[in-house]
Amino acid sequence: MPRPVCITYDSTCDLTPQLLERFQIRTIPLTIQSGERVFPDDGQYTSAELYAEYRRNGTLPKTAAVSPEDFKAFFAPILAEGYDIVHIDISSELSCTCQNAVLAAQELAEQGQIHVVDSRQLSTGGGLLALRGAKLRDGGMAAADIAAELRRLAPHSDTSFVLDTLEYMWKGGRCSGVAALGANMLKLKPCLEMREGKLVVCKKYRGSMDKVYRQYIAERLAGKAVVADHAFITHSGEVPEETLSQLTALVRELAPFEEVFVTQAGCTVSSHCGPGTLGVLFLRQPEQ
Fold first, then answer.
1. Of 229, 248, 251, 257, which residue is the least packed, with the fewest Cβ within 10 Å?
2. Element (H, E) at 143
3. 15, 127 Cβ separation under 8 angstroms
4. pLDDT score, position 43
5. Model confidence pLDDT, tens digit, residues 53-67
6. How buried is 278 (Cβ within 10 angstroms: 0-12 exposed, 13-18 middle, 19+ buried)?
7. What does the pLDDT look like over 116-175, one tens digit per residue?
């Protein structure tokens, strides 16, 4: 009889408290430092506060990975409850969080099994893997087999976002000043996608964000064989509720998803992409 399995993730999965409870997923927060103040990225410090502070003084908060010691303190009580752990993390190309989880798992090896999965994704692109892991757990699959299946599926998570501005990416050192200046002068709205664990620019749009959102969603879903259970519309804040409702209806019209969840990214993600960023994220069917 296999031991029960606990699915865990760091806070960059951007799953709502309701989804975490429904799918029985536990999370550990990254850290946000704003001036002298330090917060866990668990909603205490909001994107609205982040943007207000940036507009007031021109500084962005710093983000920090989960340390090996914090991971050990997180994992140990779960192992003590009798669980094996399947832990998923933000792409190792974007943060050392995943490597730190591996170090902690190695140090706790005598206490129980911890299988660390590098999602190779960002935000709910990795959250989709966590939901799939929960489904496999509920079906009775053992932890090692769940981890292997999630690693197989990771490249098939379709993770992308369209940005209203490159200012925050530039300020956070994620793109050159020349690129940001050129895009902003031309009123271009870049689309970034996760490719081999890294964020790359895949397209540039023009026009109002309402128009750009619709064109982007239509193009991301066009001709894709999707895994039909779940999709996410994930945004960074300052997107009107009416727009989110209209885009949810558009996603449902274009693809046969059983559920479309709307979530707002936490501060770790929002601090780099800025307000008005929005993505449609889903799993593609692996090619046979």
1. 229
2. helix 143-153
3. yes
4. 87
5. 889 988 888 889 999
6. buried
7. 999 999 999 999 999 999 999 999 999 999 999 999 999 999 999 999 987 777 665 555
Taking alpha carbons only, the member of 241, 168, 239 closest to residue 209 is 239
Which residue type does 154 have?
Answer: A
Report the amino acid identity of residue 184.
N
Tell which residue, 60, 43, 42, has the closest CA to residue 51: 60
CB pairs under 8 A, 24+ apart, for 26-30? 26/78, 28/66, 28/70, 28/71, 28/74, 29/66, 30/63, 30/64, 30/65, 30/66, 30/95, 30/97, 30/268
Averaged pLDDT, 168-183:
55
> How many Å apart are CA 120 and CA 35, to the nearest integer?
30
- DSSP reduced 3-state for 19: helix
Global confidence as pTM: 0.94
